[in-house]
């Protein structure tokens, strides 16, 4: 009765291993819905892969990884005075904080009760993302004016996504700022660079180590190893004009209302109607009796190789699909493929072969 993520275990593990072999300094990212797998499972995986550092998105995710992964934990969201972060005790030594404002660096160092070296931090430099980070000048003065011990583990650059992953020009500019800041750091934590882009950076700046923080391209990098499936829960034949659903909508033609697992609580949402929505094409679809012209919206559920229309908007935990007559109707208990975004879907279970 569930939405299940099926993983071809051998293939997935081989991909993870290959990704790490190709980029030994890689820092896996486990955050949010854990890219469909859940953060705890990714933490165990990172432990088995033997990486020295695992990144989480925010402080409330630290608890889910610290008992499963025994290396350093990098928190990607910059520390702020109002976050609830563990900053004392032995476990606090495993945390690497991201800091993006001078006043936060001062305050974190003032509050942290960590002997030997103070809190470990990565200083984020503002990129063209303009999300968080020090200005180049701010970086220069920040460390000089810290009121106590701090261990600077490097500089972080969070780059926008790009088609080619080629941010060479921007990174070169930022690296010039890093060098000018004259900090005693040699590690640059980066995101969203291609392997080629990383190699090129390493060649241009041989005194620095570039460590890519990777989520999607790691955990979801071999899509063929992953498949989400839903269970068919019910099937009701309908004639044209028969009413169904919360809204008493009527069937646009003869077919089957198919009830499948997965709803809004899993992140199943209404997708934009696919294809050309111009008036002319709508008129064409209408003439052919297309279901989108009847106001139905394409769903991510595939039956008989095609994405089917929602019979009505998804419910909390189930969805109702409309199958036109002629499409083979799967049996109750069968599973159907669901083409969802893994980062936005909460599956009920993960089955790794
Ligand atoms: C989420 C995140 C990443 C990983 O992003 P993916 O696109 O999933 O690889 C890297 N760096 C930062 C700062 C992030 O927040």
Enumerate the spans where pLDDT stays under 50 for 5 or more consecutive residues.
272-277
Helicity, in percent? 10-25%
The overall pLDDT, averaged over residues, is 90
Radius of gyration: 25 Å
Largest sheet: 8 strands, parallel
* Physical arrangement of strands within the biggest beta sheet: 2-9-8-7-6-5-4-3
Number of H- or I-type helical stretches: 9
What is the number of beta strands? 18
Beta-strand percentage range: 25-35%
Query: Span between N and C termini?
Result: 19 Å
Tell me about this structure.
This protein is α/β, with parallel strands linked by helices and 353 residues long. It is built from 9 helices and 18 strands. It has helices at residues 9-22, 39-49, 62-66, 102-111, 136-144, 168-181, 195-204, 216-219, 279-287; strands spanning 3-7, 27-28, 53-56, 72-75, 95-99, 120-125, 151-157, 187-190, 209-214, 226-238, 243-244, 249-250, 255-261, 297-303, 306-312, 318-324, 335-338, 349-352. The chain is elongated and about 75 Å long. Mean pLDDT is 90; it is low at 272-277. The chain binds pyridoxal-5'-phosphate. Pyridoxal-5'-phosphate (PLP) is lined by residues 29, 31, 57, 76, 158, 191, 213-217.
Write the layout of secondary structure elements.
Layout: E1 3-7, H1 9-22, E2 27-28, H2 39-49, E3 53-56, H3 62-66, E4 72-75, E5 95-99, H4 102-111, E6 120-125, H5 136-144, E7 151-157, H6 168-181, E8 187-190, H7 195-204, E9 209-214, H8 216-219, E10 226-238, E11 243-244, E12 249-250, E13 255-261, H9 279-287, E14 297-303, E15 306-312, E16 318-324, E17 335-338, E18 349-352
Parallel strand pairs: 1-18, 2-9, 3-4, 4-5, 5-6, 6-7, 7-8, 8-9
Antiparallel strand pairs: 1-10, 10-13, 10-17, 11-12, 13-16, 14-15, 14-17, 15-16
Helix pairs in contact: 4-5, 5-6
The structure holds pyridoxal-5'-phosphate (PLP).
């Amino acid at each position: 009765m569930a939405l299940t993520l099926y993983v071809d275990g051998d293939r997935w593990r081989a991909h993870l291993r290959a990704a790490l072999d190709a980029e030994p300094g890689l820092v896996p990212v486990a955050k949010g819905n854990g890219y469909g797998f859940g953060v705890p499972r990714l933490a165990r995986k990172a432990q088995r892969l033997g990486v020295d550092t695992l990144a989480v998105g925010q402080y409330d995710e630290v608890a889910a990884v610290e008992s499963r992964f025994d290396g350093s934990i990098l928190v990607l969201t910059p520390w702020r005075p109002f976050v609830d972060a563990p900053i004392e005790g032995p476990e606090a030594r495993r945390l690497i904080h991201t800091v993006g404002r001078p006043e936060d660096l001062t305050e974190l160092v003032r509050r942290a009760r960590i002997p030997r070296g103070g809190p470990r931090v990565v200083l984020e430099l503002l990129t063209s993302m303009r999300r968080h980070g020090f200005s180049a000048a701010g970086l220069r003065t920040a460390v000089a004016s810290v009121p106590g011990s701090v261990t600077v583990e490097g500089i972080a650059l969070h780059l926008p996504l790009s088609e080619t992953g080629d941010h060479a020009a921007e990174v070169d500019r930022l690296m010039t700022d890093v060098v000018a800041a004259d900090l005693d750091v040699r590690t640059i934590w980066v995101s969203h660079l291609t392997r080629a882009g990383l190699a090129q950076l390493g060649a241009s700046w041989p005194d620095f180590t570039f460590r890519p923080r990777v989520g999607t391209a790691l955990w979801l990098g071999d899509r063929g190893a992953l498949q989400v499936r839903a269970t068919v829960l019910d099937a009701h034949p309908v004639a044209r004009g028969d009413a169904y659903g919360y809204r008493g909508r009527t069937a646009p033609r003869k077919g089957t209302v198919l009830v499948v697992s997965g709803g809004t609580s899993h992140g199943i949402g209404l997708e934009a109607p696919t294809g050309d929505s111009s008036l002319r094409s709508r008129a064409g679809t209408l003439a052919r009796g297309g279901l989108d012209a009847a106001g139905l919206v394409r769903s991510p559920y595939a039956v008989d190789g095609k994405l089917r229309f929602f019979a009505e908007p998804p419910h909390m935990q189930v969805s109702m699909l409309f199958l036109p007559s002629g499409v083979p109707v799967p049996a109750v208990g069968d599973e159907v493929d669901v083409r969802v975004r893994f980062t936005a879907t909460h599956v009920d279970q993960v089955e790794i072969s």
